[in-house]
Amino acid sequence: MKRPMPKAQSPKPRAALATAVLIVIASASVFAQVSYQRLLNAEKEPQNWLTYGGSYKQHRYSPLTLINRQNAGQLKLAWAYQMQRPGVVETSPIVVDGVMYLTEPPNSTVTALDTRSGRTLWTYTPNIPPDVIVIGSPPVNRGVAILDDFVYVGTVHGHLIALDAKSGTVRWDTTVEDNKHGFYLTLAPLALDGKIIVGVSGAETGIRGFVDAYDAKSGKLVWRTYTIPTPGEPGSETWGKGDGWKTGGGSTWLTGSFDPELNLLYWATGNPAPDWNADNRPGDNLYTDSVLALDPATGKMKWHFQFTPEDVHDWDANETLVLFDAPINGRERKLIAQANRNGFYYVLDRATGEYLASAQYAKQTWADGIDAKGRPIRKKGIAPSLEGTLVFPNIQGASNWFSASYSPQTKLFYQAARDMGTIYYKGDAVYKPGTAFTGGGGRAVNGDVASGAIRALEATTGKMKWEFPLLSPGWTSLLSTGGGLLFGGTEEGNFFALDAESGKPLWDIQLGGAVRGIPIAYSVDGKQYVAIAAGVTLYVFTV
Amino acid sequence: MLRVLILVLLIVLPRASAAQSAADVQAGKVLFGHLCVTCHGFDGAGGAGPPLNRAKLVNAPDDAALRTIIADGIPNRGMPRVRRTLDGEQRALVAYVRSLGRTARPTTRGNTQKGSELYAKLNCAACHIVKGQGGTLGPELTDIGVQRGPQYLRQALVEPAAALPNSTLRVQGPGYSEFLPVRVVMKDGAEVRGIRVNEDLFTIQLRDQSGKFHSIRKSNAEVIRKETGVSLMPSFAGRMSDAELDDLVAYLSSLGGA
Q1: What DSSP element (H or E) covers B19?
Q2: What are B24-45's pLDDT values in tens digits?
Q3: CB-based contacts of A448: which residues, under 8 Å, 6+ apart?
């Protein structure tokens, strides 16, 4: 049977060409993936997960409601993805219009998956030298950033690499700093307007930390802000008269937050080096264990707040920086909050850095409290010693890299807390580039005598509303949702959904490996999914 | 002239190295007292951790292997990296531990043969395996003389609940008590008592005295009591003479070819 010819006349050749070009441009624009405008308004695209913490506010909150208190009990596996190599999986996937981008250990692999089926679209692994230096953590990676058509990954050999989002092809590859000196990257970069912000790991090798901004298109360094001042600069007086500042640590190993209205970038810093021996760094050691508010255009520091002055316990302050607005004493305030590794929860004014409130949220034996300016009142006899000193929290802290969550629905700050001690030892430290420069260490007080809990804190005060006890101190990140749920996991492999209001368990499953992944939610074809990595597998659940 | 130089070198060098080594042993002893004595005992006589006053160490056949263990620990086998150590500290610890192996091992007071007979008479094999023979309720003892010091073994016989073993199995995580008795009363009134085999947040797995496994969903249980400070192993305090105790400890210390 012959098909009838269309009645309308065929377009003239030139017009046809123009139409074809238009179609190509139109389809290209569909793939012109994530503009800065979309990142700014990430909360308006609950079907996607566009940036590490879900938005610049780092809430790790999904407004999706299709999985909720009523049907959480029916959660079931949709698909799973096996990592290509063994390692510790701490990835927070990103989801953009049906494509998931995740990272895999141990060589900073990036993989794009079809969010409907879990099938691989592309995978990329940088050439990591076999003698790569990774001291201070396993060779993990916590995720990618996306901006326009590029996907950005920080690598364990100290590079920042831009990949084409459609194919995984390298667009540019920049050395952030020399890995031979112990610099490496595990964090998800943060994409701003035309800039990619990264920090570094490496305090355990005596690096001098910094925050960097790179041009998103070219990979050229735009600015670098060191976390430790040089002699003569403000703050340098907190390092004594020696040269301790040169090897003073202050890593910047977790993704920061951003307030576009105040135009401030918030980035937290890690421990001073050597970790457990302060002999060569007498003083507060600014700006280690601090949060810095930076001008994103220049990197200039607008304010800082230090959580743990003269730290001798390795209590990095890199934990999640959550931004929210709430009234305090009747006045609406722009706030920044963190459940710090030292066992205290802090609330600051994010415009000025003013200390507003704190509360102990985990077992601690080192401080009598926090004074009116936010400075800890330190007990005596808590320093590491040759024969060992038992102190809570433990070396890995009351919290660590794993994400907190804030729900605008419940106005609660959710944190997995580790109630555990360490016997801290002091040792000598000799600086040799690219080797451990820690000055001691610790023996964990673990097993049946350690514990943990998911704690729901009133966000403005840190007052505990409820807790859900865990069998052991975990490394679980949390995800709250518009369906009134809180997702988390355990070291023993459980993944569960709690009622975000009450902490009551609604659903759980054993995943066969420690839950170290960072959960996210997305939707596609009208179905909501929750993704979490446990062991070396990414699991995706739906109802 | 050259001959004289060589002669001088021959005399001076070994002395220098001997002095270095003696200094290392001394420095190693101090470090050992800070970092290792809790598990390996004074003078490396052993405790919850293996005795180190042996000419041969099973996991550290040479100095390089010993150094690696000191530097990194033995993951998931109870030997932690207590803290990072500098090259010189590792060298000192190796020198000290090797010096323990050269000194004469303190003779165990008991008689191994008599201890072996007691082991049979007391029916220890009902619960413990040695070289493939015996029951499975308690820990295997085939290599126990390599794993534990005599003092620990003696305590295990007279005061078995004082220190349940931990971190020797791969099933539970570091620091968890193994062979921990647990009593569970289910909501329907059924009762189970056994040793904990594994546990997660929502479930617990027990093995009872007959060897049967029980899988328990915690939300179905009315009571879950972890009997910390209790051991299913009977105490032999007052049931044996001191000499018999010495014999049994001597036999157990000999297991594993130590």
Answers
A1: helix B2-35
A2: 999 999 999 999 998 898 889 8
A3: B175, B176, B177, B180, B226, B228
Q: Is A325 a catalytic residue?
A: no
The token pair at A132 is 């790569």
Q: Pairing mode, if any, of strands A264-268 and A76-82? A: unpaired
The H-or-E segment that residue A445 falls in is strand A440-445
Handedness of CA A501, A505, A508, A513 (dihedral sign): positive
Chain A CA closest to residue B175: A447
Cβ–Cβ under 8 Å, residues A124 and A170: yes
Q: How far apart are CA A487 and CA A480, in angstroms?
A: 6
For domain B181-226, is the CATH number 2.30.30.100? Answer: yes
pLDDT digits (tens, 9 = 90+) for A80-101: 999 999 999 999 999 999 999 9
CA A130 to the chain's CA centroid: 26
Q: How many CB atoms lie within 10 A of CB A356?
A: 17
Q: In CATH, what number does B17-102 get?
A: 1.10.760.10
Q: 3-state DSSP helix/strand/coil percent for chain B, to nearest 5? A: 40, 15, 40
Marked catalytic residue, from A314, A325, A368, A419: A314
CA pair distance A19, A462, nearest whole angstrom? 59
Vertex A411 angle, CA A410 and A416, to 5°: 90
User: With helix as H, strand as E and coil as C, how does A99-157 read?
Assistant: EEEEEECCCCEEEEEECCCCCEEEEECCCCCCCCCCCCCCCCCCCCEEEECEEEEECCC
Q: Which CATH number fits domain A30-542: 2.30.30.240, 1.10.260.30, 1.10.10.10, 2.140.10.10?
A: 2.140.10.10
Note whether A447 contacts B35, CB cutoff 8 Å. Answer: no
Domain B112-160+234-254, what architecture?
A: Orthogonal Bundle (1.10)
C-alpha A344/C-alpha A328 separation (Å) is 19
Q: Is the CB of A447 less than 8 angstroms away from the CB of B176?
A: yes
Contacts of A447 in chain B (CB under 8 A): 166-167, 172-177
In chain A, domain spans:
30-542
User: Is B89's CB within 8 Å of A427's CB?
Assistant: yes
Q: For residues B186 and B216, is the Cβ–Cβ distance under 8 A?
A: yes
Ranges in chain B annotated CATH 2.30.30.100 = 181-226
- Closest-approach residue (CA) in chain B for A490: B201
Is residue A196 very low, low, confident or very high in pLDDT (cuts 50, 70, 90)? very high
Amino acid of residue A250: G
**Quick one: how many helices (H) and strands (E) in chain B?**
8, 7
* Global pTM value: 0.90
Per-residue CA distances from A186 to A108, A140, A159, A496 (Å): 8, 6, 10, 26
**In the block, residue with structure tokens 């949060």:** A291
